[in-house]
Each structure stands twice: as C-alpha cells, then as structure tokens.
Amino acid sequence: MTHLRNNETSVSHHDTSFSHHDTFVRRHYTFVWHYDTATRSSDITTRLCGIATISTLVMIRLSYTTAYQSYITTRLCHTATRLSNITTRLSYMTIRQSYITAHLCDITSDIATCRSLITKHLPRIATRM
C-alpha cells in the first residue's frame, strides 16, 4: 500500500510538473500571440497613418490646384472684361468714324455745290469786272 501511495504521489507530482510546464507554454504562446497581435495592430496603425498622410497631401495638392484654377479663371474673366471694353471702344470709334465720314461727305458735297455755283456764275462775274 505504501508503494501505491508513493506511486500516486509520484504520479501526482508528475502531473503537477506537467501542469506547470503546460501553463508556462500556454502563457508563452499567449504572450507571443498578444505580441504578434500588437505588432500587427501597430503595423496596421502605421499603414493607416501613412494612408492618412498621403490622403492629406493629396487634399493639399487638390486645394492648391483648385486655388490655382480659381486664379486662372479670375485672370480669364479679367481678360474677357478687357476684351469686351476694347470691343466697345472699337465700336464707338467705328461710330465716330462713320459720323466723320458723313460730315466729310457733306463738306465734299457743299464744296462741289460751291464749285458748281462758282463755275456757273463765274462768266457773269468776269463780265462785270
């Protein structure tokens, strides 16, 4: 019976040491698993930060592009306004030129009328002198 008890104790002692080893291995694998998970989580967070940084840079570039496009649009509007003003001035000049041409035609007509009158009355004037 003593032998049995020693055997039981021995088996019991052996089970206890196996249990400690098993617990150690489980804790080790749990630690490694948590470490791997934390590392993966850190890698994912780093990648997400990288994506966020790239996204921010893209948004800044788009903002600059939009601002530059707005600037170009403003310049084009100013240019269109200037062209419109020039066209209006040219239109006024054309109208003035047509008035001047009409006046010159009137003057030319008056001169022609005067010449005609002078030519018509010149012989009478010459005989009176």
Plain-language structure description:
The chain is an all-alpha fold. Helix content is 98%, strand content 0%. It contains one helix and no strands. The chain has one helix spanning 2-128. It is rod-shaped, with a radius of gyration of 54 Å. The protein starts with a helix and ends with a helix.
Structure characteristics:
single chain; 129 residues; mainly alpha; 1 helix; 98% helix; rod-shaped; disordered N terminus
The computed structural class is mainly alpha
The radius of gyration over CA amounts to 54 Å
Helix content: over 70%
Distance between the termini: 183 Å
Shape: rod-shaped
Spans of at least 5 consecutive residues with low confidence: 1-14
Q: What value does the average pLDDT take?
A: 84
Largest beta-sheet characterization: none
Number of strands: 0
Number of helices: 1
Measured by DSSP, the beta-strand proportion falls in under 5%
Topology (SSEs and partners):
Blueprint lengths: L1 H127 L1
Question: How is this structure best summarized?
Answer:
The protein contains one helix and no strands. The chain is mainly alpha-helical and 129 residues long.
